[in-house]
Specification:
Strand content: 25-35%
Order of helices and strands: EEEEHEHEEEHHEEHEEHEHEHEHH
Low-confidence stretches: 270-276
Shape: globular
Oligomer: single chain
Largest sheet: 5 strands, parallel
Helix content: 25-40%
Mean pLDDT: 95
Strand order of the largest sheet: 5-1-13-14-15
Amino acid sequence: MPVMVASDLDRTLIYSAAALALAMPDARAPRLLCVEVHEARPLSYMTETAARLLTDLGDTALFVPTTTRTRKQYQRINLPGPPPKYAICANGGHLLVDGATDAGWHAGVQARLADECAPLDEVRGHLLRSADPVWVRKHRDAEDLFAYLVVERELLPEEWVKELAVWAEDRGWTVSLQGRKIYAVPKPLTKSAAVREVARRTGAELTLAAGDSLLDADLLLAADRGWRPGHGELADADWTAPAISALPERGVLAGERIVREFLSAARGPAAADRQA
């Protein structure tokens, strides 16, 4: 299809119960569809309206889920609509084609990381030494590509995050704080690189994107048009760029608005102009 939609998932299209941001009276809350179950418990949701729109989008454009989740975490999600032909996991470290890893792509990513930034072991060791057990709940590696911490956000010292970001910058890594997770990710590991590869393979002529975190900034900049919700790291930093729309909606209603914007753009004059 000539239109490709590359979207972040968590806190962009799908939302945990804690991130729903249902500020309206209970009687006016939207009906929700559970799209992820983990250990027999419902975990992530979207509105039923967003689910219907996403199904329509899958019939209109090439929808490419684009996430920092590992492959195992991504495969827990059951999105409405046709199964995506392509998906991007581990922040671009894995390109899935019909659900299977593209081994050639992954090998190329590993080679770039080895050449351009400090090794994961060094970063992992620094996190173990410097993070205080008082506020750290879990240390995790993701696909042997990057590391993250699960923290008690209210106890997390803001200065520690800033110091970690400076330390990581000097070693070719970047830091992102998303909810209760602090990610340390190699700079060459990007969603945008994988999205460009999918566009090359499919001949996509128009790329639409959405995301809420600093790890999504490169994805948005690589797209022809992009959207960010009214919450998240990008909103907190008042981040914007040409062709990027900052939406006022927060929480699960932002997810619904984003899918609506995708569908309108995929069907609208910009798409028609690209196909002419």
